[in-house]
Amino acid sequence: MTSPSSSKLPFSPVIPLIVGMLAISFAPILVRYSDAPVSVQGMYRMLFTFILMLPFGFKQLPAMKAISRKDWLLLIAAGFFLALHFLLWMASLDYTSIASSTIILALEPVFVMVGAFMIFKDIPRKLAVVGMIVALVGAMSIGSGDISLSQTAFYGDALSFFGALAVAVNMLIAKQILKRVSSYLYSFIVFGVTTACFAIYNAATGIPVLGYEQREWLVFLLLAIVPTVFGHMIFNWLLKYVKPTTISMSVLAEPVGASLLGILLFREMITGFQLIGGAFIIVGLVLYMRAENQAPIEVKNEALSA
């Protein structure tokens, strides 16, 4: 199998990597700037992204017709868990700090590793297990620090934790479906399903989806364009040219960038527990990524998280 690095960009991948890292850091900031319910934010983020993909999606119609019923069920499940991820993680920002929420969300690769072992019998390397333990210690440090501040902050941490679990399930489904469906078609269908899940949720709970101020619609559009198109879609594209580990390590910039933006824009100072816990999580994830890098290189796709 050809490694991603065998294809060459006409320019340095550093530039799109930096753009992607900056873009995903704005996701929690934009969520904070909106006063709309998180289920409405999530619905329009996915809807606008789906619309932006639509012109190219028509070319995928023949491939879409070839998808089996089993794979359609998997795609629907992936969309459901992506919607659940957004609902939980975006809601966490109403209760806890941007730093705590995004650092805990970074545990996603750890949960994917555990799920892959339980479901697919993928045996992790010892270094990956060590990294998982270190990262979980960091998460507990943040949680213990936040619970000493308030029950509300701890509740937000729990929402982010379960949001990370939900997107890990989404990733595990993607791991299977992307063997048979292209990454573009996968994203196109899953984003559509996620939009539908949010629409059903909003209708069932009586949350209005219209009548918001012009500023809110701008935030909805920016959520689709900045962290999604200029963030995660750039990372997906870069997988053709760089190692998957490079992309995974780049995603670790989100809690760092988001925390710095939280300080500048919302005066959310980072606590000692967040610094210690964040350091543990980042070190743990670096160990995990190093273990991944020791494995044979495969061309794989990243599902959308934050």
UniProtKB/TrEMBL annotation:
Residues 17-142, 156-288 form the EamA domain. Belongs to the EamA transporter family. It is a multi-pass membrane protein. It is found in: Endomembrane system. The lineage of its organism: Bacteria, Bacillati, Bacillota, Bacilli, Bacillales. Keywords: Membrane, Transmembrane, Transmembrane helix. The keyword Membrane applies. The chain crosses the membrane at residues 12-31, 43-61, 73-92, 98-120, 127-147, 153-173, 185-211, 217-239, 246-266, 272-291. This is EamA/RhaT family transporter. GO terms for cellular component: membrane. Its main location: membrane. It comes from the Bacteria.
